[in-house]
Amino acid sequence: MSLHRYRSHTCGALREEHVGELVRVSGWCHRIRDHGGVLFIDLRDHYGMLQCVADPDSPAFKAVEQVRSEWCVRIDGKVRRRPDGTTNADLPTGMVEIFITELEVLGPAGELPLQVFGDQQYPEDTRLKYRFLDLRREKLHQNIMTRGAVVDAMRRRMKGQGFFEFQTPILTASSPEGARDFLVPSRIHPGKFYALPQAPQQYKQLIMMAGFDRYFQIAPCFRDEDPRADRLPGEFYQLDLEMSFVEQEDVFAAVEPVITGIFEEFGGGKPVTKNWPRIPYAESMTKYGTDKPDLRNPLVMQDVSDIMRGSGFKVFARILEEPKNRVWAIPAPGGGSRAFCDRMNSWAQGEGQPGLGYVMWKEGAGAGPVANNIGPEKTEAIRQQLGLKDGDACFFVAGDPAKFVKFAGLARTKVGEDLNLIDKERFELAWIVDFPMFEYNEDEKKVDFSHNPFSMPQGGLEALKTQDPTTIKAFQYDIACNGFEIASGGIRNHRPEAMVKAFEIAGYGEKDVIERFGGMYRAFQYGAPPHGGMAAGVDRIVMLLCGTANLREISLFPMNQQALDVLMGAPSDVTPKQLRELHIRLNVQE
């Protein structure tokens, strides 16, 4: 029989039933071992790993002696059972090996800048510059395959929920959504620019205006933001969706099973929240100090202002004379040692805080400077309110909650991590609801949108006309998972007069609205259905499922921290001719 030019089987396919067959395989030399004159090649391809053997009697021995790590080769040989005691139960092909009769080098490899075999750490720029080698490594290869499977599952589940997939334009108009746009100069219209979409927000709402009912897409989004570990520079993907004739509950009912299902399918058997709690934004901030709480951490902060008011502890008593100021307590079960409290205190100073007051309980009484100042009665009241016992401690943050809330959240996380209270082996999901529609911008002394300007205010036009803007909540919600925001959405404001009023409060006139969102504003005049939706971060969800803290571990060709593509050399200079065609002159500051 004649064999295929490169392979009759993949490296992962051979089993005991193939013993005795003449086969052909191709792949990369993962590892080459010399056992007293007998040469072993672990041959690797996308599908698996296979042991190949040559001894000095083998006609291919000379050729095998030449090859090195990561050479790409074709091997012919006979499948045989591995000798007793040399089988490898961890490998699907671990019962067999190939005795090499012929070897052809398909692509030799030079000196390797990074080893594929093993788990060595390399500098990030080395990994990204030689990403094609990095991607041959098992963990990364696996992550990329997981990503593809997750996207497939998202599509399957969305279609199962009656959603239809659409593609929206990549070249669009610049939008004032907050983050910066990537601009694309127009050759045909001198001096004008397209923008890459930060999200398909307006298009998906227009699809609802057009009567399509349930839209989704795995949408690329582009934002010219400074990179962070949990946000890729430049581009990212989201599972984007929108639905017509729905209220908030309908969106939740459609999305929750999709996301829960993905975490159950790919979460490696870790428990996943069944019925997601609904946590109002304000409650999330006071209990957890963040709007994306890690609910694997059992600690809940409490307001102890009433106990501290007029107490013997002058610092807190004075702070509480201001009506908006509060004192919050962070419980620390098992943290009642001087060493731990001192460690937390110096950590707080490292975070730019004056320190962290604490009480620790032993032998039925509170100890430490704060306890001595407020006295046994108030110390006992705090212990009871927080449900603490001997061997526990609690820490205090005081002042204007708007200013200290972020630090309080970090402190809660730090206590939870240092005392090993966080169960890392689970996925805790929750809806964060009732986001504020507006916030007061201290610097510019004006009211801004807090979140998405297109959200429907709770109470509609009436609320916009009669309520203090900073008290208006929006039908705006996020999904939090293990301390990450993985999705965000809202019910949209589909009444033109309410849309104009909302923008007016944030300092935009009707003219601005028409200029910036003309298409959508026009669409709202012609029978707009109530609609809402959300977008979930594909990259972030895959990151959580793969158990990595960095998005670059789940993307094929990411940029580095400086937003440079070191593999392709982007961004790059362009020729004077290209610039002339685009009617652009550069003005680069030296």
Outline the structure in words.
This protein is α+β, with helices and mostly antiparallel strands and about 600 residues long. The protein is about 30% helix and about 25% strand. The strands form 5 sheets. Strands 6-9-10-22-21-20-17-11 form an 8-stranded mixed beta sheet, with helices on both faces. Strand 7 and strand 8 form a beta hairpin. Helix 4 runs antiparallel to helix 6, helix 4 (about 140-160) packs across helix 17 (about 540-545) and helix 13 (about 460-465) packs parallel to helix 14 (about 495-505). The longest helix is centred in the N-terminal third of the chain and has 23 residues, at about 140-160. The N and C termini lie far apart (about 70 Å). The model has no long low-confidence stretch (mean pLDDT about 95).
Short description:
The protein is of the alpha+beta class. 30% of the residues lie in helices and 24% in strands.
Write the layout of secondary structure elements.
Blueprint: E1 22-35, E2 38-45, E3 48-54, H1 61-66, E4 72-81, E5 96-107, H2 124-129, H3 131-134, H4 138-160, E6 164-165, E7 183-185, E8 193-195, H5 201-209, E9 214-223, E10 234-244, H6 248-266, E11 278-280, H7 281-288, E12 302-303, H8 305-308, H9 314-319, E13 326-332, H10 338-350, E14 357-362, E15 365-367, H11 369-386, E16 393-399, H12 401-418, E17 429-433, E18 438-441, E19 446-449, H13 460-466, E20 476-481, E21 484-491, H14 496-505, H15 510-516, H16 518-523, E22 531-537, H17 538-546, H18 576-581
Parallel strand pairs: 3-5, 6-9, 11-17
Antiparallel strand pairs: 1-2, 1-4, 2-3, 4-5, 7-8, 9-10, 10-22, 12-13, 13-16, 14-15, 14-16, 17-20, 18-19, 20-21, 21-22
Helix pairs in contact: 4-6, 4-17, 13-14
